[in-house]
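Sequence in, structure out. Go.
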Amino acid sequence: MKNKSKIIEFPYGKIKIKNKDEIDSDFDFEVGVEHQTLIDKQDYPGLVRYCEKRAKKHPDDLYAQYYLGDAYVLNGEYKKAIEFMTEHHKKYPWNPDYQYVILDSLFAMGKTENDFHWIEKPEILRMATDIVDTCHEFLKRKRKPRSIMELYTQFVTEGYLLFSEKDLLKALLNDGRFKVDKPESEFCAEVSMVRKKRR
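Output:
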């Protein structure tokens, strides 16, 4: 099973501690390495066990709870992920990590965002005209071509994305306002606006 989570990994190594007395000796770079190692090995049952221990040991750690929910998703335990995250969503309805774990689970089960009772409903972005128009507005101010990855990244902070870089590339290729170089790959493709020639 591939990591289909839409959630961006927390940068453990960049944590700045203001007060050394507040340091949690278990919450350090090594925690992140162990977590990522289990994901890289696709040892999702092992990841669940690891995250369950951390969540139990640190019940007030929002990230520990999120990582357990995400581990359930990666392990295919979608109902369990939703059940676990529901209580945390009620406490912290604004938390997008919790919202995204629930959304990952719902969509993996063939459901929609409307099949859950949200306290605070997350923003969900689907491939549509407004996405393409946003890319157009962005590129109007740029002289040089921009990668699909750069265009895609600007939407990541706007909500839960229900489209991929490949979907975005396809949409731009089908719109005559854009010129796409190296269109065979979303990783290499570069996009610019089709500009009218001056007379």
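Check: The chain has two domains: 26-114, 125-193. Strands lie at 124-125, 146-147, 160-161, 178-181, 190-193.
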